[in-house]
Each structure stands twice: as structure tokens, then as C-alpha cells.
Amino acid sequence: MTWIVALVVLAVIGYGIVLYNRLVRARQMAEEGWSGIDVQLKRRADLVPNLVEAVQGYATHERELLQRVTELRRQAQAVPPDDVAGRAQVEGLLSGALGRLLAVVENYPDLKASQNFVQLQTELATIENEIQMSRRYYNGATRDLNVLVESFPSNLVAGFTGFVKRAFFETDDASRAVPKVSFPR
Questions:
Q1: Contact yes or no for 76/90 (Cβ under 8 A)
Q2: How far apart are CA 111 and CA 136, in angstroms?
């Protein structure tokens, strides 16, 4: 009889260890996902000054927009690394401002024809795609971790060992708006 109790206790402890290891794996996947987003956001932030400089020579009367893009880049870099929601908000605003900047470029045919600008625009499009893929990966890994943190019986192990839910990387609706591009007729 005592060996049955001991076997049950060992099974419960073993199951607890399995759940703990699943939680650790899920947390590591979410951290890896955030690292991927962070790398792409830093690449974009490094590209912004070159983009602004290229546009600045042509679009002298667009100073306000150029200053806004520069300010949002500075704000994005100032957000603490672990503030996912804050970073998502500022990066969403920066994405919207960059979209408006690229829409403004449509009025400058010489700039659109510049090989340097075309290369910058291509790099920015590539980085935006990488950010989107990284964001999907991170949000999927975060979802898996959050399910484990909230589901029974893994929530017991999570609560006991200090695992908590993570925030999703989401942008607000304003930054999702497609910039309006109009061509002269």
C-alpha cells in the first residue's frame, strides 16, 4: 500500500516536472520571438535616418512629417526593452508615419527615380515584412505560454514557480491605416 502511495506521489512530482519544463520551453520561445522583433525594429530604426535624409533634400516643405518620423524613432529607442505594450504603441505610430512619408514621396518623381532612395525603400519594405513575420512568431509563442500559464493544471505549477502571462505585440488601429497615395492627373 505504501509503495502505491509513493508511486502516486512520484507520478505527481514527475508530471509537475514535465509541466515546469513545458513552461520553461514556452517562455524561451516567447523570449526568442521578442528578440527577433527587437532585431528587426533596430534595423528599421537604423534605416530611418538615411530615409529621412534622402527625402529631406527633395521634400523641403515636408519638415513637420520628417521631424515627426525622427521623433518617433527616438521615442521607440527610449522604450525599456521589457515594455512590449509601450514599444508596440510607439512602433505602430512610427510605422504609420513611415507610411505617410512614403506616400509623400509619390509627389517627387526625381526622388522616386533615385537609385539610393529605391534601395532604401526596398530595404524598408524587407524590414517591414521581417517585423511582421517576427511579430507573428512572437505572438504565437506568447499565446502558447499564456495558455500554459492559465490552463489547469499547468497554472498551479506556473503560479508556484513565478511564470506570468506576457503581453502580445499589437499595434493600434491608427497605425494599420493604409496611407492615401494620389497621383497627379
A1: yes
A2: 33
Q: Which CATH number fits domain 36-140+167-176: 2.60.40.2550, 1.20.1440.20, 1.20.1730.10, 1.10.287.1490?
A: 1.20.1440.20
SS3 164: coil
pTM of the predicted protein model: 0.73
Amino acid identity at 102: L
Q: How many helices (H) and strands (E) does the chain have?
A: 7, 0
CB atoms within 10 A of CB 34: 23
Q: What is the pLDDT of residues 15-43, one digit of tens each?
A: 999 999 999 999 999 999 999 999 998 89
Nearest Cα neighbor of 95 from 119, 117, 67, 127 is 127
Taking CA atoms, 166 is separated from 26, 104, 135, 142, in Å, by 11, 37, 13, 6
The answer to whether residues 142 and 33 touch, using CB atoms and an 8 Å cutoff, is: yes
pLDDT tens, 1-15? 788 988 999 999 999
Q: Which of helix, strand or coil describes residue 88?
A: helix
User: Quick one: cell of 54?
Assistant: 534622402
Please count the CA atoms within 13 angstroms of the CA of 38 that sit on its side-chain side. 15
Query: If we measure between CA atoms, which residue out of 41, 52, 6, 38 comes closest to residue 128?
Result: 41
Give residue 148's identity as a one-letter amino acid code: L
